[in-house]
């Protein structure tokens, strides 16, 4: 379940006091353990590797609990419980102790820092949002470095990212601008569709502002039906032309790069003026045929409605008589009322 404070970068003031109290109490406990020298680290690590000595591993871990707490404290700005951050840091420390190789001549603190950070990173990525952020190298890099890069660019960490800044950050982090914008939206947290925006009096729910600019299904269907009908009408109109008329009309009016009158005249062995006349006549015929094909279905629908109304059962004579009698009674009542009034 997503933590309640994940939608904000800074926790509330009581949360800070609680985290500080937890850290101070924890620091007083782990401060009892002494730090180790390089030789002591090497000996404890070898004892663990060779004999699986639990006391050696415990001593190696407890001597670096202050390191784990220090690293965990640097991640308080993600709004997660500080106790959970320290627990994840200690888990990374234990993993580092179990995998540390003393023969590589490196300090255990340097090796453990990487495992501590990796454990904390995984915990934050799992807990940040209901929507999975991702675990690829590029997504992790964006998640933990985007706010810092935005501050370097002079933009507030809580402000929405602009396209220009996104391009600059994408170049520095070697990712796409789209990935930067998507991560910025996720870092701002989940927003309810019923969230109130715009003030108390003149505001509205965020859902009301999400307007789909695309046409609705009914409009799309009507446009498609109209386009199909026009295409059929044009096909019928073209079929009513002669071969020469159709060739001239298609070449002059329907081709992407129409030929000149002279080119068509040479092709058809006629004059340019004759080609122009054929074009005008063919276009007029197609226009009349297309209009006729468009109007005929409408007329057919109108005739169908009139035919349906003519098929309705006629009014019975006795029904007409009863209506007339009722009308006469109403008139009689009105006349009597007028006499009473006088």
Automatic annotation (TrEMBL):
Which domain of life, per UniProt? Bacteria
Coiled coil stretches, renumbered: none
Q: Where is the composition biased (Basic and acidic residues)?
A: 333-342
Q: Which region ranges are annotated with the description Disordered?
A: 297-342
List the InterPro entries hit by this protein, alphabetically: RNA_pol_sigma-70_dom (IPR014284), RNA_pol_sigma70 (IPR000943), RNA_pol_sigma70_r1_2 (IPR009042), RNA_pol_sigma70_r2 (IPR007627), RNA_pol_sigma70_r4 (IPR007630), RNA_pol_sigma_r2 (IPR013325), RNA_pol_sigma_r3/r4-like (IPR013324), RNA_pol_sigma_RpoH_proteobac (IPR012759)
* Segments forming domain RNA polymerase sigma-70: 260-286
Where does the record place Low complexity bias? 298-308
Query: Which SUPFAM superfamilies does this chain map to?
Result: Sigma2 domain of RNA polymerase sigma factors (SSF88946), Sigma3 and sigma4 domains of RNA polymerase sigma factors (SSF88659)
Task: Reply yes or no: does the keyword DNA-binding apply.
Answer: yes
Q: What keywords were assigned to this record? A: Cytoplasm, DNA-binding, Sigma factor, Stress response, Transcription, Transcription regulation
- Name the protein family: Belongs to the sigma-70 factor family.
Which NCBIfam families does its entry note?
PRK06596.1, rpoH_proteo, sigma70-ECF
Q: Which PANTHER family match?
A: RNA POLYMERASE SIGMA FACTOR RPOH, SIGMA FACTOR RPOH HEAT SHOCK RELATED
What's this protein's name?
Answer: RNA polymerase sigma factor RpoH
